[in-house]
Structure formats: C-alpha cells, structure tokens
Amino acid sequence: MMNQQQNDLLASVTRPNPVETEYNFSRIEGEIPRELNGTLYRNGPNQKTEPAAGYSAMHLFDGDALIHAITFDDGKARYRGRYAQTDSFKREQEEGEFVTGSLNFAPDRAIENPPPFVAPNTNIVPHGGRLFALVENAPPFEMDPKTLDSKGLWDYDGKMLGMSTTAHPKIDQKTGQMWIHGYQPIEPYIQLYVVELDGSVSLAESHDAPWPSMMHDFAITENYVIFPLGSIHFDLAPMLTGGRFSDAISGHADRNMMFGIRKREAGSEIKWIEGPSSGYMFHPSNAYEEDGKIFMDACTYEDPQALINSLDIIRSGGDPRGFIAHPYLYEFDLASDTCKESKLSDISAEFPRIDDRLIGYKNRWGYAGTAEPSDDAAGLFRRITKYDRTGGPSVNREVVEGQWVGEPVFVPRTPDAEEDDGFILNLVHDTNKDETAIDVLDARAIDSAPLARLWLEERIPLGFHGNWLQA
Fold first, then answer.
1. Does pLDDT of 399 surpass 50?
2. In the beta sheet, which residues pair with residue 268?
3. What is the rounded CA–CA span in Å between residue 306 and residue 329?
4. What integer is the mean pLDDT of 196-213?
C-alpha cells in the first residue's frame, strides 16, 4: 500500500496553485540560447475551487485546466497563465465548488455532469494557427495562441462522430495534417479524424473494436494508423447508475492486447492483430515502417490492473510499484498478421517524446522521464533519459534529491537542424523550495548542467503534457 510519505509527495507536486498571471522572467541561472524563439505551452490540472460535497478525495487527474505559455525571444522569456474558460469552469466559479471531476465523482455528480462539463487539462496542441486544450472525455477546447483567451469547444465543423476525442493528436510535419482519434464505451468504439492546416476536416470515420477500452493514445506511420487496444474493459453501466469512472473499467490479464491497423486513406478497413501478452499503454513514443513491417515503441504497463489502481491511488491507496511502465518495442508483420514484442529495459519510463518533425517516420533518438525499479515514488521521475534506437548507450540527466522532472519537449535548434541538434525543455518541481523551474538542456549533452534554468514566480503543479510552437 502507498505509505503516508508517498501520499504527501504526490500531494506536494500536484497541489493546486490557482494563479493567473503574466511576467518577464527575472530569476535566470545561465543564459537562454538566442536560437530559442517560440512558445512552450504546458497543460495540467490546477483546481481553482474546493471539491463538491460527496467527494472522497481529489484525484491527481482531476482539476481545471490552467494553461501555461512560456515565450522565448532573443535570450529573454515571458510567462502567461490562463484558465480554459469552459462552461463547467464558469459554473464552478458561480457555485464555488468543483463540479467537473471524472475520476472521483460522488454518485450523484456522475450523472449530473456529463460532457461538455469537462476540464481540458491533459494536453495543449498548436496547429494551423489555432491552439487546442485537450482531454479524452470531451471535444477540443480552442484558445487563442497569443493571449490564451478562451474561444470554446470545437466539434470538427459539425463532423464529430462520437462522444469525445483524446488528448494526443499526431501531426505529420510533412503533410501538415493533424490526426486525432476518439473512443467511447458504445459502438462504434473508435473514431478517427484528420484536420488540415487550414482547419478543414478531411476525414471523419468510425471503427468497431473487439471490446470497448480506454485508448489514451495511438500512433501513425507514413501510410498507417495504429490503435492499441489494452487489456482493460470499459463498461458504461456503472456510470449510468451513479458510479465513478474508475468503477466502469476493469483489468483483464487473461486477454492479450490487440492492435488495430488501417491505412491512412479514407475508407480503409481496420485489421486487428493480437499481441503476445496482456497489458496497457498510455503513450506510444513513435511508429514507422521499415522492410515491409511496422515498428512501434511505447511505455507499457505489464499489469492491466495498474491503471485501475492508479485511479484509486489517492482515494484509497494502492501499490505504487504496480503503476510502472517499461519501454517496449512492437513489430507488426501485416503479411502474416503477427506481432512480436521485446522489452527494452527494466527502468520505469513515461512521457516519451521524440523530435516531432519525425512523428510517423524512423527516428533514432527518444527522450522520456525515467526512474529505477527500486524508486517507490509512483509515477514521479528524477531524471530525463535520452535513448538510442540503434542500440547505443542511454544518457541521463538526473536532478538533485527532492526535485522531480516532467515531460521533456524537444526543440530543434533551427527548422532544418539534424535530429537531436536542439534543446530539451523540461519542468523541474523542487519540493525542497516548493518552487518550479524550467530547464533548457542541450539535447546532445543532456547529462551536462542546464544551459539555463528559469524560476517561475508562482509554483505550478506537476501537470502532464506540453508542446512547442516555433516563432
């Protein structure tokens, strides 16, 4: 069971600090590279009001979306933070209590507050001059990329097919297309959309699957789309009868993962290939084609019950060592409809990122938050690891005791720079000082001291995902 010290640690790094502000950074260690010109957007739960009556606890996935924009310009940096002003957020301000949680709902709240009463607190993605705050139980929520003013929910120009879309679109830098999927607990279980750079929706299609499941993320290659179906079943009935979201999902270790693969062309059929084992993945890193096969690497939870445990980790404890993902490589042979898997390491790894210019195409380098198996701080990482697909040694950037790192975001030094020639932007959460900083690392020497460390004037919670928009 999670002990009190671990609970206190999670509470410390995820504790809300509901401050909307903007300022120029004044506490900077080192020098910001002048090649770094653009904006890092970050998203994560940052609850502004107290939980509603009937909540047993706030979950670390619950909370209003406070969007952070850190703009770099010629060696200087500026911060701006604004809440996504959804209908539910406005209602919370009127009622003075939290109403939008999806994981620890009191029974009556589960039915009172279906979508669009949501908090788009998971990812923030720029595309085609627009900015979308995303969560996997709602449509995208559009915000102004410069001011962070809220614009509202977007329904794919009336072409939305399901109940929601997820928080992990894939942008093909060669075509400019944004691919995004959705899932739901009723048939058809999966939806797929393509958004062009001009904002038009060129594809909106649905697919059935062997069973309804949470499908947090997916992958694309130059010619294919891959849907990972985890060994987790989604049953709508508990939520319709007043249960929590965590009551609606269950792990099935006796059922192997399945992978749905279809071509990117409109109207393509989906082919389901069974994997060799059970499990679940939040985040694939990348996928690509080579020698007539498809390769995909991902952070995989070997115990499908680990996700369900994580949903209860604050409310009722749970074994934090079960909430650990390991790097895996999957090889799909479409000629024989087979899948091979190989475990790449015993380290705990999550939030994998690559050079986004290579999404869907073969890459060499990847970056992730990692921890040793003996580290019992569930879901928290003390280092950033750069790994080499060609089998070369991994390189680590480790922070000091009491500090924790977030998702690493790669920024190329110039638009046409080689892979890995650029910077890693990473949030560092210092529990010793109760402060947050942004590290600017040289991607080719991440084990060296940061080129710059920018201290925020207001601490922000751990958060989840972020993306870069070049100036």
1. yes
2. none
3. 20
4. 97
Rounded to the nearest 5 percent, the helix, strand and coil shares of the chain are 10, 40, 50
Reported confidence tier of residue 59, pLDDT bands at 50, 70, 90? low
Copy the structure tokens of residue 106: 């009191």
Closest to 268 measured CA to CA, from 220, 224, 234: 224
Q: How is residue 69 annotated by DSSP?
A: E
pLDDT score of 110: 44
Residue 104 scores a pLDDT above 50: no
What pairs with residue 331 in β-bridges?
295, 340
326: alpha, beta or left? (left if phi > 0; alpha if psi -120 to 50)? beta
Provide the residue type at 10 as one letter. L
Query: What's at 337, amino acid-wise?
Result: D
Amino acid in the structure at residue 17: N
Structure token digits, residue 98:
């939290």
Task: Give the contacts of 22 (CB within 8 A, at least 6 positions apart).
Answer: 78, 79, 80, 81
Q: For residue range 359-373, what is the model confidence (pLDDT) as tens digits?
A: 999 999 999 999 886
- Structural domains present in the chain: 4-470 (2.120.10.30)
Q: How far apart are alpha carbons 378 and 365 in whole angstroms?
A: 26
What mean pLDDT value characterizes the chain? 89
Phi first, then psi: what are they for 79, rounded to 5°? -110, 140
CB 182 within 8 A of CB 167: no
Tokens of 449: 């001291």
| Range of 38-42, 182-186, 241-245 with top mean pLDDT | 38-42
Contact by Cβ (8 Å): 29, 54: no
Q: How far apart are CA 231 and CA 217, in angstroms?
A: 14
Residue type, position 380, single letter: L
Mean pLDDT of 418-424: 99
Instruction: Say if residue 152's pLDDT is above 90.
Output: yes
CA distance 60 to 15: 9
3-state DSSP of 84-133: CCCHHHHHHHHHCEECCCCCCCCHHHHHHCCCCCCCCCCEEEEECCEEEE
Q: Which residue is it, tokens 């809220």?
A: 150
